[in-house]
Write a structure and sequence with these properties.
Layout: H1 2-19, E1 35-41, E2 53-54, E3 69-71, E4 78-80, E5 82-84, E6 94-97, E7 103-125, E8 128-144, E9 146-154, E10 156-164, E11 181-189, E12 206-215, E13 220-228, E14 236-238, E15 261-262, E16 269-275, E17 279-284, E18 291-294, E19 306-313, E20 332-344, E21 346-353, E22 355-357, E23 365-371, E24 377-380, E25 384-389, E26 393-395, E27 399-401, E28 406-411, E29 419-422, H2 428-449
Parallel strand pairs: 5-8, 21-23, 22-24, 23-25, 23-26, 24-27, 25-28
Antiparallel strand pairs: 1-20, 2-9, 3-4, 6-7, 7-8, 7-20, 9-19, 9-29, 10-16, 10-20, 11-12, 11-19, 12-13, 13-14, 13-15, 16-17, 17-18
């Protein structure tokens, strides 16, 4: 065991020297061998891949249920919303650039049109008063576009590369006419407990991760979590769980701050989020971690699986910024270069690598991990490896790290409900029947209990 002790001592010395530097940069999950790419679109085609994306909500061609405006409950004000052009090959709200790295452009503009959305009506079913949605044709003043992934995700590392044009001016300090808000977020509401793959979970009825909400008037990006487990719970806005890890030092002058991050127009930016069982970390244009929401504030593992959504609120109702219809130049361009999702590789077993090397070791989250030992030979001399387990990682004798090998050793929870995949679309009739069935089953259960 002498070799094992020597290795740990050297590792501690190296960490102390390295962390003493003025600025520390994290290894992002996409560069960690523990993670694998599970979803990607680099938009190199002349059209949108409709096997990967939806272009509107299942229930509506707009961002709201009831009509073309949203309502501010605290002030009683309303605000017009944009109709989402649901066909990506016409109507002038989509462009595809296949030169260079390729991109998709979503176009937002002032335009009078009509579109269908769901509107709620009150109905009585089996003596119960319920709210049922139906299609309603309404008038819109703006049009836009949206990307919404057909795949849902529970945990992972999410990253996209984007640019927003500022058609009003070239300088970011004139904020009069920028009442639009580009977003990169995840959301799912599951009041009927849809669970097609029987995913083990303690579920929330409402889950949302805002990886980026960009305020066009100030060009400041912000991240938030929202969570509601039952209808009786308060809508939870996780906005204050801020901390810098002890081993991470922010460069001087401080580019990052607690409240927001500048993401100026006409420039390409990279925004990413790591969602794990115990925390979410957000990164804006830097590998330095800038904000964390942990389970001390919100039960991260109770968020349910969600699809990715990319859209631009015009006007920006998430900031309640009214649109200047006279001075704002149009159209507004929201360009997306790529979207990538990585998830951690896992195998819930007690793993023993008596004999292994850089070429055949599999970086995964194991239940427990033992490397090397009497009669074995574990040699890491090149590439990257991540030795990780939930309970412990034990390096026995005859474990050697040399050459150009870069080794990470960590313990982290196994994420039993990590998941990605598609879920069946629920039509309006199915949605209504689910409500009826739930009411009937609830009554039968109550009668049995009585």
């Amino acid at each position: 065991m002498k070799k094992n002790h020597n290795f740990i001592l050297v590792l501690i010395i190296i960490m102390q020297v390295y962390l003493g530097n003025r600025c520390f940069s994290q290894t992002l999950p996409k560069n960690d061998p523990l993670y694998e790419l599970v979803f990607v679109d680099e938009f190199d085609s002349v059209s949108l891949n409709l096997n990967k994306w939806k272009t509107h909500w299942d229930w509506s061609k707009a961002n709201m249920f009831n009509s073309n405006y949203t309502h501010n409950e605290s002030t009683g004000e309303t605000m017009d919303m944009a109709l989402l052009r649901h066909h990506p090959f016409n109507q002038g709200n989509w462009e595809f650039d296949t030169t260079g790295t390729g991109k998709v452009r979503m176009i937002y503009k002032k335009e009078d049109c009509w579109g269908y959305v769901w509107a709620y009506v009150t109905d009585t079913i089996n003596g119960e008063v319920v709210h049922i949605a139906h299609d309603s044709l309404v008038h819109f003043k703006y049009t836009g576009a949206m990307l919404r992934s057909k795949e849902f995700f529970k945990y992972g590392y999410f990253e996209y590369h984007f640019k927003i044009d500022n058609p009003t001016h070239d300088l970011p300090d004139n904020n009069i006419c920028n009442s639009y808000g580009p977003n990169f977020w995840m959301w799912n509401s599951d009041t009927l407990d849809h669970n097609p793959d029987n995913i083990p979970r303690t579920r929330a009825e409402y889950s949302e991760i805002d990886m980026l909400e960009l305020n066009g008037k100030k060009w400041l990006g912000d991240a938030n979590l929202h969570y509601q487990k039952t209808k009786t719970d308060t809508f939870f806005n996780a906005k204050d769980d801020w901390m810098i890890h002890d081993t991470i030092k922010i460069c001087d002058p401080p580019y990052l701050n607690k409240e927001s991050i500048p993401l100026y127009p006409h420039l390409w930016h990279t925004v990413s989020c790591e969602w794990t069982k115990n925390y979410t970390d957000f990164y804006y244009d830097t590998p330095n971690f800038h904000r964390r929401y942990s389970d001390s504030l919100i039960k991260i593992d109770e968020l349910i699986e969600m699809p990715i959504t990319i859209d631009n609120y015009m006007p920006a109702f998430q900031f309640w910024n009214y649109f200047d219809t006279i001075n704002t130049k149009q159209p507004i361009y929201y360009d997306i270069d790529y979207i990538k999702v990585y998830q951690v590789k896992q195998e819930y077993v007690d793993k023993i690598y008596l004999n292994t090397n850089s070429n055949n070791f599999e970086s995964k989250v194991y239940k427990s991990l033992i490397v090397g030992g009497n009669g074995g030979n574990a040699l890491f001399n090149t590439g990257k490896q991540h030795l990780c387990a939930e309970k412990y990682v034990l390096l026995n004798e005859n474990t050697q790290i040399s050459g150009t090998a870069k080794i990470t050793i960590s313990c982290r929870p196994y994420q039993h409900d990590q998941w990605h995949g598609t879920r069946p679309y629920k039509s309006y009739n199915t949605y209504k029947q689910d409500i009826i069935d739930k009411l009937i089953n609830t009554k039968l259960l109550n009668n049995e209990n009585n």
